[in-house]
Structure of D-glycerate dehydrogenase:
Amino acid sequence: MANKVFVTRKIPDSGIALLKAAGFELVVSEKDGVLTKDELMGALKKEKYDGVLCLLTDHIDDEVFNAAGKQCKIFANYAVGFDNIDLKAARTRNIMVTNTPGVLTETVAEHTFALMLAIAHRVAEADRFTRAGKYKGWGPMLLLGSDVFGKTLGIIGLGRIGARVAHHAVRGFDMKVLYYDVQRNENFEREYGAAYRDRIETLLPDADFVSIHVPLLESTKHLMNDLRFGMMRNTAYLINTSRGPIVDEQALLRALRAGTIKGAALDVFENEPAIEPLLLELDSILLTPHIASGTIETREKMARLAANNLIEALAGRVPPNIVQAGSS
Ligand code: GLV
Ligand code: GLV
C-alpha cells in the first residue's frame, strides 16, 4: 500500500514532486494559513498517515502525536530549528523527527548581514523618509549611520550559520570577531583571527554588533535580558535571526527607549506573529517577518530535503537529517 503523508501547509513544488515521484499519497492542507492545533489534530485523525511534513509554526506535542496514531513514523520539520516539536514525546511514542539543516545556512547568514548593514546605515528608515517626501536635498548631517567595516562583531552561538556570518564579517568587512559558544573551536579562531569568550558577559561589552545564532532551549530563553542589555555598548546593535523568545522583548524595548543600546534588527519575535506594538514606533529597530531563509532557491532546497527525509524514513532507512530517532 502506498505511504500516506500529510503536509500541514503548501510548500514549494519541488518537495511535493519528490514525494509524488516516490509513489506517496499526499494530502496537503488547503487552509491559507497555519492550522490551529484542533484543526491539525482533526486532519490527522481523519486518515491513517505514515508521516507528516510540518512547519515551524505547527506546535507538535504529545496530543498531536496521539492524534496521528501508531502507524505514523515520522514528523519531518520544514525548518532547521525544531523547538516547535516535543522531542521527548516523540521518543516515547517512537516517532522520528527530522529538520532541514545546511541548505539554509548561506541564506540566513546573508539575511543576517542584510539586517546588520540596513540597521547601521538606517536603510529602512531612510526609505520611509524618502517616500514620505521629506528629502529636500543633500545634507551633511542627514540620517547619519554607523560603519560596519572594521567594527567588532560578537557572535553568540557558533554553529553553521554563526560561522558563516563570521566569514562575511572578516572576509567582506574587515571586522573583528568575538564569539561565545558552549564549545570552543580553535580551527575557526585560527582561520578568522576570532577570539573566544567563555561567557556572554565578557563578549557583550566589547562588541559593536551582537548577532544571535543559538537554538531555542530552556537555557537560551531570554538569554538577552535587562542585565545583559545593560552590558552592551550604548553604540551597539543587536541582530536576531534565531528564535524570538531568546530575546526578552520588553527588556529590548526598555533598552532601546533608554538608549542603553543604539538599535536592533529582528527577524524573529517572542510571540509570533504578534510583536510588541511599542517597538513598532521606534526608528532604532528594523523588523522583517521571519524570512531569513526565505529565498526561492533555499525554500526549494528545504522542501526537497524535508521530502527526502520522509522518503528515506518510510523506506525503512535512517533519514539524513534525524534529530530524534524514536525509541527503538
Ligand atoms: C527557520 O526559522 C528555520 O528554523 O528554518
Ligand atoms: C544551523 O544550521 C546552525 O547550525 O547554525
Observations:
- The first helix runs from residue 13 to 21.
- The pocket of glyoxylic acid (ligand 2) is lined by residues 80, 101, 105, 159-162, 213 (CB under 6 Å).
